[in-house]
Design brief:
By secondary structure, this protein is of the alpha/beta class. The chain contains nine helices and seven strands, in the order E-H-E-H-E-H-E-H-E-H-E-H-H-H-E-H. Strand 5, helix 5 and strand 6 form a beta-alpha-beta unit. 39% of the residues are buried.
């Protein structure tokens, strides 16, 4: 069944790969990004070229996840053009790398805004339409770092992704009776096919970084990057994340998996989340809210 889909942060990485794959699977896909006539003009043009060359319904959409006004306008445009919205994919995110102490509180707030608050802006714009329809799907791109192995020097990013994952879990329960389904995609480390590492931010407090470099953590950043890259298999392909997302979207309503792990490094997140999600589910059964574990079929 053809779905109308919006993806945040779709100028590159997992977002763009998923947009291409979903469009080729026959869906109407809005690949959203900020600056479609500015910083991401080339990416927006490439989206249109891909759509034309592959004869698919893929469209670049101006959407700045940092602005509620921009998000509202983008969602309103989709509904005006299509009459509905079936799938919202929360993908926008940003990574930073460095000793946690050297990041300012303002940097952490900015990272939290991009990785967590952005999902709230999009939900507040899109969920009224999905609730009105009595049917929909939220796809959240989480991270294995939320429960698996967590190398140092990535604390702000890991904290933000853990916050987003926690939001996804609770939203799933609060939307189940509206007939809105949730799938959380949990990628592991991919050092190719995304811009996470290439475009990752750095601490603003250079003096604190220098203290770490002059002390017992001299050269530690490079050591982490080298060790991290070494455990990623040579054949790890970021497009496997996009393929998993297509399988989720194409699955029958009510049968979609709550979590999907795509983790070439096998960092243990699948085991940990298996326990965590089971404990959470058992608590809902215990207090009589087991119906929140599956989306209600409305109408």
């Amino acid at each position: 069944m053809k779905q109308v889909i919006v993806i945040t942060g779709a100028s590159s990485g997992f977002g763009r790969l998923a947009a291409n794959a979903l469009a080729k699977a026959g869906h109407t896909v809005y690949a959203s990004m900020r600056g479609t006539t500015g910083r991401n003009a080339a990416a927006a043009a490439d989206v249109e070229t891909f759509a034309r060359d592959n004869n698919v319904d893929l469209r670049a959409l101006e959407l700045d996840v940092g602005s509620q006004g921009s998000v509202d306008a983008a969602i309103a445009q989709i509904v005006a053009e299509e009459g509905r919205l079936d799938v919202v994919m929360h993908n926008a995110g940003h990574m930073v790398f460095g000793p946690a102490e050297a990041f300012t509180p303002e940097q952490l707030a900015e990272l939290y805004d991009i990785n967590v608050l952005s999902t709230q802006r999009v939900n507040r714009a899109a969920l009224p339409q999905l609730r009105k329809q009595g049917r929909g799907l939220l796809v959240w791109v989480s991270s294995s770092s939320s429960a698996g192995g967590t190398p140092p020097y990535l604390a702000p990013y890991f904290a933000a992704k853990a916050g987003m994952d926690a939001m996804a879990v609770i939203y799933a329960r609060e939307l189940a009776r509206w007939g809105i389904e949730t799938s959380i995609i949990v990628p592991g480390a991919f050092t190719g096919g995304t811009n996470h590492f290439a475009h990752s931010g750095r601490p603003a407090d250079h003096a604190r970084v220098a203290e770490y470099e002059a002390g017992p953590y001299a050269g530690f950043g490079e050591q982490i990057m080298t060790a991290f890259s070494a455990i990623v298999p040579a054949d790890a392909d970021a497009s496997s994340v996009a393929e998993a997302i297509v399988e989720v979207v194409d699955a029958p309503f009510g049968k979609r998996p709550f979590r999907v792990h795509i983790d070439p490094t096998q960092d243990g997140a699948e085991v940990a989340f298996g326990v965590i999600d089971r404990v959470r589910s058992e608590m809902l059964h215990r207090v009589g809210f087991s119906d929140l574990l599956k989306p209600r079929v409305n109408g």
